[in-house]
Amino acid sequence: MNNTDHTTATVEPAIRLESVTKQYVGAETVTALADVDLPVYGGEFLAIVGPSGSGKSTMLNLLGLLDGPTEGVVRLGGRDVTDLSETELTDARREYIGFVFQDFHLLPTLTAVENVTLPTAFTDGQYADRAVDLLGRVGLGDRLDHTPDELSGGQKQRVAIARALINRPEILLADEPTGNLDRETGVTILEEVRRICERGVAVVAVTHDELVTEYADRTVRLVDGRLGEGDDGFAT
Amino acid sequence: MSGGLWRLPALALAWRNLRRNRLRSVLAALGIAIGVFVIVVLGIFGTVLQLSASQELGGIGNQVIVSPAEERQAEALTPRQIQSVERAAVGRGTAVPVYAENALASAGSQQSPAQIYGIDNPAALFEGRDRSLPAQHRGGAFVGPSVASALDLQIGSTVEVGGQQYRVVGFLEPSQDITPIQPNNAIVLAEREFTGGYDQAVVVADSPEDATAVADDIDRRLNVRTDRVDIFELSELLDTIAEFFTLLNRFLIALGSVSLLVAGVSILNLMLMSTAERRGEIGLMRAVGIHRESVLRLLLAEATLLGAIGGFFGAVLSGLAALALWAVTPIGLDVVVVPRNGGYLVGGFVFGIAVALISGAYPAWKAAGERPVEALRG
């Protein structure tokens, strides 16, 4: 994947932060992100690295429409989603975004298939077949009815990846996707993510793991809420 | 597989969550079951008490007894007063003028005190033991069961009252009712055996409401400026007794409600704990696009399930307890199996669900309303 293709103005980023500042107001106001511009394109694997407290999680929350910026604009496929209502944001998350977390966040009472279909549980439509298909793709075709406590860490993360794909998202957000996995398992997961990326999904991974950056097309470094110089964070 | 799970997603997820910590769920449902049981059993107990009591009190509420006012020291009712009572009773019941006195009855060497009545229509006030009483007294004596056994009387025996001898022509059926006109100790003679004015007039009304109306009517007709007659009427007393039982019943149920309240607090506690433990899961559900309302529905479904399970077992147990009351006590099935007790069963069940739902509302609202960003931190 050659990200220089995206510098042409005709291609709309899958998601984009425009001059985004995020402050947490408390006893003392903390600026987690300061005037950040970041486009992420479909088919691109972007890794965000940086020390603890640099604003990585904040950035992922903003990209995932879980939180709104204090200033600036968030565009989802060119559409300004900064001021959407909570209900509209929830719908947008379900339609466009998939999440993968460090500690998997599988529901212990549900089987693998049920966990994968969870995002669609309260919507119309049959997703069980797609869930079975996705679990087959991540190599868990023989673990469909297993509950999380019957699965290894790598298997759990693959269930989580299948869950993130159930809605055919345009953006896949991963928070330390290899954080709880050994290196070998991490490689399998990253290869899986790489394949997803090649199907045109924009992937953003927040990580401490050097391994992740090896699989990424592009790595940006966050320091004190600013995109580090020398990184390709200002693509337009 | 998941095909069936998501048909009722809130209920399905709620059920799985309750099964996750079975002991805790069972204990919370048990609290509701006990609360519902106590309320329903006390409600049924109150009904049984009230219905048994009104059976005992029986026809007492239908009678109006008119006698000369005590302060006027009149011996008897005047013919005009009797006429007024008869008019007041038209369409609402039967007026029966009565001679009454206490006397000693004897047969052979045995003696017994008795209440002697002179009534031409004994059928209006008494029941016959072996055959029905005539509407027109043709002579002889109808004897109450206590007197009959004290004097060892048979049909055809002779009983002596006030120096006169009467042939026993029938016996009176004993009465469980509480009424001033008691058959047990009575000897009923024909009116012609008495002289002078009637001592009392008894109106047997068609209903307690009629009795009240007749009493008011008589009061209007006869006690215009001064009280000429005393009117003894028990339907108001019955009302008072009924009110007392209603009050007692409400008090018992209120007492029972306290136990349901405690059960509600335990559900509140359970839901607060379980939503706190599942903070991350709830945040995940919100993050992957499940709406706040759906999460709220899921959590309320958990509370409702606890209430429904507890309420069901509570209601079933109290139904069994009511049947046991019938089986091991002399209480009849007719006062146990009544619509009102059915109402308590259904009401207790519904109340159990309502308490659980109300108790679960705050924790559910709190957990569902949390921003997913914060909830996801666990």
Largest sheet of chain A: 6 strands, mixed
User: How many domain modules of chain A?
Assistant: 1
Report, as a whole number of angstroms, the end-to-end distance of chain A: 17 Å
Helix run count of chain B: 12
E-strand count of chain A: 10
Largest interface: A-B, 37 and 28 residues
CATH domain class name of chain A: Alpha Beta
Distance between the termini of chain B: 28 Å
Relative strand content of chain B: 15-25%
Radius of gyration of chain B: 34 Å
Q: How many beta strands in the DSSP annotation of chain B?
A: 9
Largest sheet of chain B: 6 strands, mixed, barrel
Number of domains of chain B: 2
Rounded average pLDDT of chain A: 89
Strand content of chain A: 15-25%
- The helix/strand order of chain B is HHEHEEHEHEEEEHEHHHHHH
Which residues of chain B form runs of ≥5 with pLDDT under 50?
Answer: none
Structural class of chain B: alpha+beta
**Rough shape of chain B?**
elongated
Q: What is the helical fraction of chain A, as a range of percent?
A: 25-40%
Keywords (chain B): Cell membrane, Membrane, Transmembrane, Transmembrane helix
Protein name (chain B): FtsX-like permease family protein
Transmembrane segments (chain B): 26-49, 251-274, 295-324, 344-365
Membrane topology (chain B): Multi-pass membrane protein
Describe, in short, the structure shown.
The complex is a heterodimer of chains A (236) and B (378). By secondary structure, chain A is an alpha/beta fold.
